[in-house]
Amino acid sequence: MATLNWQWLALHELDSAALYAVLAARQQVFVLEQQCLYADIDGEDQHAYHLLGWSNDGGSHQLLAYLRCFAPGVKYPETVLGRVLTVQSARGMGLGRELMMEGIRRAEQHFPGNAMRISAQWHLERFYGEFGFAKASDSYLEDGIPHIDMLRK
Length: 153
Prior knowledge:
Helix content: 25-40%
Shape: globular
Strand content: 25-35%
Number of strands: 8
Structural class: alpha+beta
Distance between the termini: 27 Å
C-alpha cells in the first residue's frame, strides 16, 4: 500500500495550487468520469475541512486522494464526510482505504464523540461498511446515481 502525505485544511488555508488540484480532481472524478453534470462548486467548501493526500514518491507532487469534512451541525447533527475520491491513476493501490482511515481519524480528533454520516454511492455500501458505517436510508437518486445514507456511531 502506498503512503500519502496528508494535509487537513480549511478552505482559506489552501494555497492556489492545492485548491486547483482539488477542484480538478473533483471535476475529473465526479463530473467527467461519472458523466454527471452538476455544480461541484456548491458554496459549501468554505464550511468544510479538506483532507488532501499527496503522492509521496519524491519526484512528483500530485493529489491522489481527497475528501471534505463538515463539523457536526453544519449539514447534519453528525460529522459529515463527502466528496471522497481517489484519482483514476491511483486506484487499486489501497489509497481509498487509507483515505477513509485518515479521514475518520482526523474527524474523530477534531470532533470527538460525534457520529459520522456519509451519502454513499449504493455500490460502495460494503466498502464504507468496513469502516463501521451502516445503512441508514433507502436508496435514492443523487445527481442520477443511486445513493444511500450511512451512519457510523
